[in-house]
Amino acid sequence: MHLRQRCVNLFCTKPLSSALQHSTHILRQPSHHTIMTALLQHSHKQVPVHTLPRRYSRETWRPCGIRYFMDQHAASPNIPNNNSNLTQKDDASHPILLENSDLQQISSQISLSDSQNIGLDAVVRPSPLQEMSEEEAVQIQVPSALPPVSFTLRPYVDKSETLSRLVQLGVDLWKLEQRPNVGSMLVRLDFHDDVAPRLLFLKDLGVEESKLGSLLTKNPFILTEHLENLEARVSYLKSKKFSMQSVAVMVSKAPYLLNFSVERLDNRLCFFQQQLGLSAEKTRNVVTRLPKLLCGSLEPIKENLKVCELEFGFRGNEIQQIVTTVPKVLIANKRKLTQIFDLVHNTMGVPHSLIAKFPQVLNAKFLRIKERHLFLEYLGRAQYQPSQPNYISLDRLVFLPDEIFCSEVALATLDDFERFQKTL
Q1: The whole model's pTM is what?
Q2: Which residue has the higher pLDDT, 62 or 150?
Q3: Cys-Cys crosslink for 278: which of 162, 263, 282, 391, Cβ 3.0 to 4.6 Å?
Q4: What confidence tier does 416 reach under pLDDT thresholds 50, 70, 90?
Q5: C-alpha distances in Å from residue 317, one per residue of 314, 323, 394
């Protein structure tokens, strides 16, 4: 009803006659665009309702299904009678008849245009230049390019420069993502600020580029160390007369070496020098060959030293000889070390002096020593005393390949040795 009221007020205007002069011509066409334009141009001036004929007053329109409009000043054009929706007579006082469907279509279009001009039904939209409050800015959620949660680093590699560069260096990310908190640490690192300076430091130190991937795979936490601390630890090692080449070799073999403080490094060097009674040069030699001695726990080292002295019966100078020749004896498995010594000393009858002279036997495979000894014993050639004929040294017993051992030491063929191994 509100829409009908607006249409009545809109059409009951003085300038309506000029607009309806063209109405009969437009009604022949399917479109009402021209009449809508004319009506909208003159929709601001209203005429009292009493100027309309009495019989066509507003009260008589409501129950009817047809709207009557009349222009008293314009002549009525001739309209063909075949139009069922429009009926016009020659008398200028007769009205123009429009069906409800046509009127509703025109009224709806006029109402929409009128509402746009007036602004009553316009939707209020914020301007892009409008200033935003702090509360509204906090509520804005920006979608992240990276997944918030993931069990693997694979979704982050293509979007993170740090991870992509580490992959190019040869870092095994699948190993690092299995360690707790390492994956999240790597994602937060910036390549230019965090990673690149540490890589340049290691390269200047003398670490080969081919070993950087392995080093970072074993110790990714070196990327979070301050450069000042790393430089201080390298300077300390240099002050102890370690060469740059030795430091580079030590860092490559023991990636966690530079993660320890200067105080810890100094305490470890003092321990080995005092506990073993070695000189500074021999201590540097031992540590350079096995830098893990500065990184690992001291408890296994102390225990192995007690085993060699108390259980095996080696003297101090013999222990020094063993350690300086084979530093791995200090961190070897205690059970394996005891089995080898029992076989070599108690079963084979090799004295302590010969074991200290060839300490590599303590680092060999137990099964290899046992098989070769039993084969020589089967052949009657198990002779390990230097003063006796057909003497076989421990290094030839252990470290020669099977073919050379059979031909030169056992004086047998390789097939004989393999058939003997099947009998064990």
Answers
A1: 0.61
A2: 150
A3: 282
A4: very high
A5: 8, 10, 20
